[in-house]
Amino acid sequence: xxxxxxxxxxxxxxxxxxxxxxxxxxxxxxxxxxxxxxxxxxxxxxxxxxxxxxxxxxxxxxxxxxxxxxxxxxxxxxxxxxxxxxxxxxxxxxxxxxxxxxxxxxxxxxxxxxxxxxxxxxxxxxxxxxxxxxxxxxxxxxxxxxxxxxxxxxxxxxxxxxxxxxxxxxxxxxxxxxxxxxxxxxxxxxxxxxxxxxxxxxxxxxx
Length: 207
Description:
Elements: H1 9-12, E1 23-31, H2 38-44, E2 47-56, E3 60-61, E4 64-66, E5 76-78, E6 80-81, E7 109-110, E8 132-133, E9 137-149, E10 158-166, E11 198-206
Antiparallel strand pairs: 1-2, 2-9, 3-8, 4-5, 6-7, 9-10, 10-11
C-alpha cells in the first residue's frame, strides 16, 4: 500500500520495510578433540559442534496515520514529525524491555498541518518512508552431533545422533511495534520475532 502523497516521488523515497541496516551471520562446524582408543574413544569420540550466530538491526518502519481530514481525499497517510525532534529522538532510549509499551517517542509525532479554509482539512504528513528501525535481534543456534559407523548393517552406513538448540541462550527478541500513529496501541510491542529456546533430539541414518 502506498501511503501519503502519491504524486510526490521525493516524499515516497525511502527504505523498504524489509531493509536492515546491519546484518551479520557467522556459521561454523567444529570437530571436537577426542580420545582415539578404548572406552573413552567409544564414548567421547566423533562429536561435532555446529553453531549459527545472527546479529542484525531492526527492519525499517514507516509511521502510518489514518487521516480522514486530508484535503486530497487520501486517508492512508504518514504521520507528521514534530520540528522539535531529530531522527535520533523518534525512538525512546533505554533497555528494550523498558520500551515494550512505548517504543516510539510519541511526542515527536503529530497530525499534519491544517491547510483547508474550513480549518479542518489537512495536508500530507511529512515523515519519510522507513524513517526508524524496529528492535534488533541477536540469536544463537547450536547443534551437537556424533556420527557412528555401522558397516555391519549396510556397507559404509553411518548413524548420526544430534542434539539441537534454537535460540540456545533463550534471549528474548521482540517483533516490531505497532507503527500506526492513530492506533490506541501505537508503539506497543505485543509479540516476539523468535521463539523461546527450543531443544530437540534427532537420529539420522546414512547409507
